[in-house]
Specification:
- With 635 residues, the chain is an alpha/beta fold.
- It has an eight-stranded antiparallel sheet, covered by helices on one side.
- The chain is globular and about 80 Å long.
- Helices cover 34% and strands 22% of the residues.
- Helix 7 packs antiparallel against helix 13, helix 13 packs parallel to helix 17 and helix 14 packs parallel to helix 17.
- It contains 17 helices and 25 strands.
């Protein structure tokens, strides 16, 4: 949600800011703006809508400023209008601020500042920040604990201001009276600083600055940095200077390009075979054979204490990650024999499960910055602090960004190795999360001896076949799926059905379709159709049924026929195996024959393609669907 870019150096700031914001478009936004300093004056340009609107406003303006901040806003407080767009300034037009997150005490601050003569022009929480900084800059500086004589009055005012703010935020601030300083601060929202040759950057995510530098420093909570032409200084909110060391990103700028694909989502669907191969190499030991006690089949690098006497697993997640958690529950219970519950992180925060001993909490977040998931894990850790060893917090994270807030919050991480995902609708990161759960469940099954080693080997061999099978689905099915998508130009509703381990895939298929095509879609357990949803069916409501050979195969076929009897158009995700699919389904999205346990990773591929082609056929913005954001960093 929202994007921040800041620059100070030798280049024209506007172009660096706009290019950086374009790399962050995937985060979702509805307005944008930049602020620069030139010739002692603050120049602020904002626009409603997409970045091309902002670029058109800036074109033709001669502004060689070499310091500036930029922002893409996803509306939280106030409508998506230009007057609510960032950057926001104080009444004198001296201080400009961009912010991600939410200032929870903005109303109190706003009323206090109004009482001191400040006039507000927006409906946002952010606008209190430049007014507060301006108010504090007007106060005389006095010696006090944490006061550093070598730090500017501007820096000190920002430091005092962030200590008055409550909530989760990341900010970047410039001031016309201090044209050689860019101040940034972080509290519960991601922010990185980039180190170039005589130039320095800040951003809410690394793709914005990768074209310029790979040396970055991720700020931690209650840290701020002062960027000048001479370098970067890092402090805590108390004003103490900190020693920090940048790290080098292992990220190729080419990875954030479309590479000939029409959309990032399309490219990322095709990257899934490589993602599965990477996970196989990262998690599974090729040297292991059944009966080999010298090495383990899975190597996740997890502290063995997390597994010791384990009795219960709580999975905390949101959105697509929640669907991955549902598949994880099935695997953990069926393979490792551990009772597992899956919770919406946003609900768990306010209605947690009763405290039980020997419980592992697993938080899933693609970005590692999902606010509700982080807060739920933090609450779980806090409520178990000081309890006996049996009730001690055991926290595990599953994320695509191990350097993220999630990586800093929990002691153990499973890195999903998906590479950066630009499309808002998750595809390859979902499959990577499933691979993480296969590895976790098999590792626990091996350690707890709940499966014969021969069965573990069989499952691992099946997993090793998946990349080639995904490639087979992509090569054989995309053409027919693209053609099929043409027939749903006027469709308003879809139903997705699955049972057992593929019920979560029905949910995921429905979510993908509604996210990018704006078609109302729902996923149901196939056996629940008769308990209400069947009333929705007629010739205008297509039904997608996931029918993979296994324990519930015949049941799904029976449920599908009930839908067809109500004149619904029936689309089957199934192998051509043992029956004439054409007799049951109007259309077949064929997948290879595979062990039912492994079928979710194959079954989801045609559903991703179906959603993609329906949305693309409608001419919609597939990579940046309306109202959505890639990284949900607010509650």
């Amino acid at each position: 949600m929202c994007g921040i870019v800041g620059y100070i150096g030798t280049q024209a700031a506007n172009e660096v800011l706009l290019a950086g914001l374009e790399k962050l478009e995937y985060r979702g936004y509805d307005s944008a703006g930049v602020a620069t300093i030139w010739d002692g004056k603050l120049n602020c340009v904002r626009a409603k809508g997409k970045l091309h609107n902002l670029r058109e406003k800036i074109q033709g303006i001669d502004n060689p400023a070499q310091i500036g901040i930029g922002h893409t806003r996803w509306a939280t407080h106030g409508k998506p209008e230009e007057y609510n767009a960032h950057p926001h300034t104080d009444n004198h037009g001296k201080v400009a601020v961009v912010q991600n997150g939410i200032i929870e005490n903005y109303r109190e601050l706003r009323e206090e500042l109004k009482g001191r003569g400040h006039e507000f022009r927006s409906d946002t929480d952010t606008e209190v920040i430049p007014h507060l900084i301006a108010e504090l800059m007007a106060e005389p500086m006095v010696d006090a604990p944490g006061f550093m004589p070598l730090i500017s009055q501007f820096f000190e005012a920002v430091r005092k201001a962030v200590n008055k703010l409550e909530g989760a935020f990341a900010i970047a601030v410039i001031c016309a009276d201090y044209p050689d300083e860019l101040i940034v601060a972080r509290q519960q929202a991601p922010l990185v600083v980039g180190f170039g040759q005589g130039e320095f950057f800040c951003a809410s995510d690394t793709p914005a600055i990768v074209p310029y530098t790979r040396a970055v420093l991720s700020l931690e909570n209650e840290e701020m940095a002062r960027l000048t032409p001479l370098g970067v200084e890092v402090y805590n909110f108390a004003g103490d200077r900190l020693k920090k060391t940048p790290r080098l990103l292992n990220l190729n700028p080419v990875l954030v390009e479309k590479q000939g694909f029409r959309h990032f989502m399309h490219k990322e669907i095709y990257e899934q075979p490589a993602v599965v191969r990477t996970c196989l190499e990262a998690y599974f030991n090729r040297e292991w054979q059944p009966g080999d006690n010298q090495v383990a089949p899975i190597n996740l690098g997890i502290n063995p204490e997390l597994y010791q006497d384990l009795q219960q697993i709580e999975i905390l997640a949101c959105g697509t990650s929640w669907h991955a958690g549902l598949v994880g529950k099935y695997l953990l219970e069926q393979l490792a024999g551990i009772p597992t519950s899956v919770n919406y992180a946003s609900e768990y925060r306010y209605a947690p499960a009763p405290l039980r001993p020997y419980t592992l909490a697993v938080g899933i977040s693609q970005s590692g910055e999902t606010a509700d998931t982080l807060a739920a894990l933090a609450m779980e850790n806090q409520r178990r602090t000081g309890l006996s060893a049996a009730y001690k917090a055991r926290l595990l994270g599953i994320t695509n960004r191990p350097e993220s807030s999630l990586g800093n919050l929990v002691p153990d991480i499973i890195n999903t190795h998906a590479g950066i995902e630009i499309g808002v609708a998750a595809t390859k990161t979902f499959v990577a999360q499933l691979m993480a759960f296969y590895s976790l469940a098999l590792d626990l099954a091996y350690q707890r001896k709940t499966l014969p080693e021969a069965r573990i080997e069989e499952i691992i061999q099946g997993l090793r076949q998946l990349p080639a099978q995904i490639e087979q689905v992509l090569s054989s099915q995309e053409g027919s799926i693209e053609e099929l998508a043409h027939e749903f130009a006027e469709t308003q509703d879809f139903i997705f059905l699955g049972r057992g381990i593929n019920f979560p895939i029905a949910l995921e298929g429905a979510l993908k379709l509604k996210e990018i095509s704006y078609i109302h879609a729902e996923g149901y357990p196939a056996g629940e159709m008769k308990h209400g949803p069947i009333a929705l069916l007629d010739a205008k409501v297509p039904v997608v049924a996931i029918a993979m050979p296994g324990t519930v195969y015949e049941k799904v076929i029976s449920n599908a026929q009930e839908a067809k009897a109500r004149d619904a158009r029936l689309i089957g995700v199934t192998p051509q195996n043992g029956f004439d699919a054409a007799e049951i389904f109007n259309n077949v999205l064929q997948v290879p024959v595979v062990d039912e346990l492994l079928s979710p990773i194959l079954a989801v591929i045609p559903l991703q393609l179906l959603a993609y082609h329906i949305a693309a056929r409608r001419g919609l913005d597939v990579d940046q669907p309306r109202n959505l954001a890639k990284s949900v960093t607010v509650e």
